[in-house]
């Protein structure tokens, strides 16, 4: 197995530049992706692990599952593969560094910032747990803090997948305060284990590593307020419940724990956390909706919404979205793109769905085809997403990409409803017997053919049109950190059958 070195190219695409981290499972490199003109992070599995075929298979299988998670607080996973015996993952590059480095350099943070950071971590865990994925190894090492203070959680399920393949990782499990007691005793990780780890993380944010270490002879870890004056007792209680020894005594989900924290500090803006000293630099990111709303001016609006809608329900229904001072903000209101005609419509069956990326227009013929069924599975936690591009116009590579909805037989279409966790992209709706973006698009009653899709659920009313299918032809992407993409959690078509 040839040693990895700078300037080496993986998968005939990713040019390694410099190592930026070394963890329990992987060595992390900053790399360039010239195809999409962006910086990425490449995680290369340690050689001792990569030599085991069971480990390689488990690692790549779990990476495939984790790649389906699309959420502002989840580290995006772009690619995975093997080369010359090396196993690697390609993820988004975050300007900043791991939370572990920040804590080692600066020590504990103030209580409001600790609650806010934990809320964003819990939002990422909720996204994963709702999709049936357990992290199982949450620590400050796999929580990244961007230069503007936003949080990204990575490595979902990777360590647990390798342990399940029969490999012992690092020190004995008992030495890790982030692993729940049942994990230490050999049980498989569950969503309750993620809640436990989030409680330990909050304790360390509040009072440093001493808050994560049990008392002598296996006693409970001290309350954060016992180690650092000024910590509200209510935060002690959140920590105590989250890291209860018995799963039944913990919060029943990451969303419930997050709601508890929001009730305590959801009205306080989070001061952005600076990147850790010595963190690798990158060209400044273009401002996004996410950074724009990290403004003290939006706090009153957030308070009103948080008081009206629970965090868990709001996220699930698209009424809230991740972002803002404490990691959550109001989603733009769901609204129809045009006023629907008075004639009633019925939901039309969608018999098949698939991605559209015409090679004739510069595409490669594939736009996450394995995720396309998630757009009609009835579960808003699962998402079909486009690839991630360097610019909103697809890196000048192509005019658009799409999702074809096959109705099975001709019907009169009157409206299309789209739910997305991250709005700001635009779409045209094209009818026909097969996906053809060159066909004139369907029109709304007021004559529009291009529609901007906000976060949440939007119904686009159309002039009645008889068609056997509808193509969602995405013409412009929305910013997502340093890249651009569009995602569809659910889509439905209404009209008159036959």
Walk me through what this model shows.
The chain is globular. It has three domains: 9-92, 2-Layer Sandwich (Phosphorylase Kinase, domain 1); 96-282, Transferase(Phosphotransferase), domain 1 (Orthogonal Bundle); 346-496, Jelly Rolls (Sandwich). Helix 2 (53-66) packs antiparallel against helix 5 (158-164), helix 4 (111-130) packs antiparallel against helix 10 (254-265) and helix 9 (233-242) packs antiparallel against helix 10. It has helices at 47-50, 53-66, 99-106, 111-130, 158-164, 181-184, 191-207, 224-227, 233-242, 254-265, 289-292, 299-308, 311-317; strands spanning 9-10, 14-22, 26-33, 38-45, 77-83, 86-92, 96-98, 143-146, 151-153, 320-321, 329-330, 346-348, 352-356, 384-385, 401-420, 425-432, 451-453, 456-476, 478-480, 483-485, 487-488, 490-496. Strand 1 (9-10) and strand 2 (14-22) form a beta hairpin. The chain has 13 helices and 22 strands. The strands form six sheets. Strands 12, 13, 15, 16, 17, 18 and 22 form a seven-stranded antiparallel beta sheet that branches. A six-stranded antiparallel beta sheet has the order 1-2-3-4-6-5. Strands 7-8-9 form a three-stranded antiparallel beta sheet. By secondary structure, it is α+β, with helices and mostly antiparallel strands.
